[in-house]
Amino acid sequence: MTDSRSITFDGRALTIEDVCAVASRDARAELSRDPTFLARIRRGSDFLERLLREDGVVYGVTTGYGDSCTVVIPPEFVAELPHHLFAYHGVGLGRMLDAEETRAVLAARLQSLAQGVSGVSVELLDQLAAFIEHDVLPRIPAEGSVGASGDLTPLSYVAAALCGEREVLFRGRVQPAAEALAALGRAPLRLRPKEGLAIMNGTAVMTALACLAYERAEYVSRLASRITACNVLASAGNAHHFDEALFAVKPHAGQQRVAARIRADLAIESDKPAARNEQRLQDRYSLRCAPHVVGVLEDALPFFRQLIENELNSANDNPIIDGEREQVLHGGHFYGGHIAFAMDSLKNAVANVADLLDRQLALLVDTRYNHGLPANLSGATGPRAAINHGLKALQISVSAWTAEALKQTMPASVFSRSTECHNQDKVSMGTIAARDCLRVLELTEQVCAAMLVAARQGVALRCAQDDVVPGAALQAFQADLERRVAFVAEDRALDTDLIALLTAIRAREWTLHDHA
Ligand SMILES: N[C@@H](Cc1ccc(O)cc1)C(=O)O
């Protein structure tokens, strides 16, 4: 833990940043001990128990699951049923979620159950909270959820681990969940009648991944604005494409914000008329329309935040157990359509930013478009220039990463298909969309890392060549980049630099613009 921030799970709304802080262990998670909160949780599970004693029919409690809801479960088997739910859903494949993702999943599930309408016991919430507190991380395979009976299959690994089954990552070692629980002196959970469904029949995996994706996308948006400013400077572009008066007449707030960031970086003062570059009236679109491309992402983010946080702060399982009004409400709140849409759209907006940057780099390395900089931004001079190829391969790699990012933008949600004997005849595919989105972000961050190498090189070359003095923000940024990456005077492998920059991007090491 890097600070002592603590996030309380008491049914009140959490933010994306709260989930991300728990995921990165920058904050600890605490289950509220407030008596009103605990009483509310107990009312739900007490009501459910009373209902069972009085012989009520509750889906998934006294019936089989899904399409099998017409199967009546004899009372002597009711207690075993939830364990069957996670047992037969142990069919996940693909990569394992990483530690950060897994913590985010646990937090998202705890937050949903803490709404107090899932009919679970305080003991279950305690066990989940203990997993977060002690960093007991169920091994969760990423694939196998259609995202509309919730994330049944991946969440079965959470349910199983809480009960001391399957595997967890604990204290740096993959081990049986039972061993980790024993080490902590905690008993495995014995699920009560509705608790299997409560853990598994919800959207926690896609919502968790969406929170992580959102935070990364927000940073990419700021970084892309900064990189654009560097490229305008390096290619002696026309800084007045970002003029305040120009953007005042197109009132997309996010687009205006991006233009303002680029303007600030280029130290353009609105009251001063264009002083530079009248010889070239208009730059190519990848520079001139950068606010219009990054602005789409910037303008869409608040909407995505709303969708993601509403899902995060929702009861998203089935059935809903209203202990106050003593009602069982059968519905479909496990349907992750909002997250699916947010992630399908976010990956599109982010991939467009990768594409924009790829085009900027294509201009910057090309002597036909870079206004006097050396070919491939090579720093070699004299006869040795002949054998030096500078950033040629880096630019090719950016093309490859961009193409791969763009390829991932096919919406997942449109691939809904009827499954589970047509009970689930329309599904969200939100988890696939969220995984795609994370992959697009990974590739776009790689593009950004490469762009930083190019910016560092391009700005240095321009400043040396034309006696340009960057404004304060870019000067400081350039100085920082120069400390991280040596000038490419002779050809060399750049992979180590790229990895270091990628790590810095993921850690959001640069405070960019109006970012807190
Ligand atoms: N999500 C389904 C329940 C379900 C659970 C497990 C399954 O294997 C299938 C369906 C419902 O509430 O209707």
TrEMBL record:
Q: What is its EC number?
A: 4.3.1.23
Per the record, what are the reactions this protein catalyses?
L-tyrosine = (E)-4-coumarate + NH4(+)
Presence of keyword Lyase = yes
Q: Name one GO molecular function term.
A: tyrosine ammonia-lyase activity
GO BP terms: namely: secondary metabolite biosynthetic process
Superkingdom of origin organism: Bacteria
Keywords for this protein: Lyase
Q: Does the keyword Chloroplast apply?
A: no
Which Pfam families does the record match to this protein?
Answer: Lyase_aromatic (PF00221)
Q: What is this protein called?
A: tyrosine ammonia-lyase
